Structures are given as structure tokens and as C-alpha cells.
Amino acid sequence: MAYSIQTVAQKTGLTISTLRFYDKAGLLPFVARDASGYRAFTDGDLALLHTIVCLKSTGMKIADIRRYIELVMAGPTTAEARRALLSGHREQVIAKQQEIAHSLAEIDYKLAMYASPDAETKVAHEWALASADKEKNGLPNPFTA
């Protein structure tokens, strides 16, 4: 079954302009055109598009996604190159996850501090430290009222 760009936009949650951008960026060379010149997506195309969206949402650069698609289009002999590309990207995603987990821990720490019974005392102490540090270093103190 062939799907129009409008149908694909509805199925994927992507906008038509995003799909056109992906096409112009060389990410959709596998999508055929019908006799009228309109893009005609197949179920297989939707599966590849799903992979493209996954890679994009995890921060892979358009050039690297294009390279991945080129490897897919080249056939099964490129499996090792695809594996290497995805393995490198996976490492970047894991590093980003760790960075986010660290940031989330800081947010949770602050939320717990603000929810504690002695929140005002803790916040006053934090404020005093930041204020004193500015004064000690001879810097303008935006913490003073």
C-alpha cells in the first residue's frame, strides 16, 4: 500500500514540512514518486522513517543519518559499517543520559531542600554562601538587596 505525504504526517506526527526537509536533506532517497510526481510512501518506507526519527530525536546529526541511509540503500554488505555508526551514536546517547541523570539528581536535591521543614534556613545558608563568595572575590554582588 502507498501512502501520501499527508497520511505519513498523520501516522508519524511529523509535519509535512519536516518530511519535505528530510527529503531535501537526502534522508528519504528510498521514497518513490507516483506518476504525478508525488511521494508515495510504503510500509517499508515508514519503518525506515521511524529509524530516522529515532536517530534524530537522540541527537544524531543529519549528515550522519544521511550516511546511515546511504549504507542501508547500499545493501546487506554494509551491515558492519552500519553497526559501527550506530555503536558510536549509542555511546553518545549513553553519555547524554548520564549527563541528564546528573542534572536530574541536582534538581531532586533542590526540590528536597525546598520541601524540607527547615527550607528557609537552608536557602538562607545557600544565599549567604553565594553572597560571601562574591564579596570575597571583589565581584559585584547581585545577591544583596
TrEMBL record:
Supply the InterPro entries for this chain: DNA-bd_dom_put_sf (IPR009061), MerR-type_HTH_dom (IPR000551), MerR_fam (IPR047057)
Which residues does the UniProt record annotate as the domain HTH merR-type? 2-71
Entry protein name? MerR family transcriptional regulator
**Protein keywords:** DNA-binding
Q: Which GO terms describe its molecular function?
A: DNA binding; DNA-binding transcription factor activity
Q: Which CDD domains match?
A: HTH_YyaN
Q: Which organism is it from?
A: Lacticaseibacillus pantheris DSM 15945 = JCM 12539 = NBRC 106106
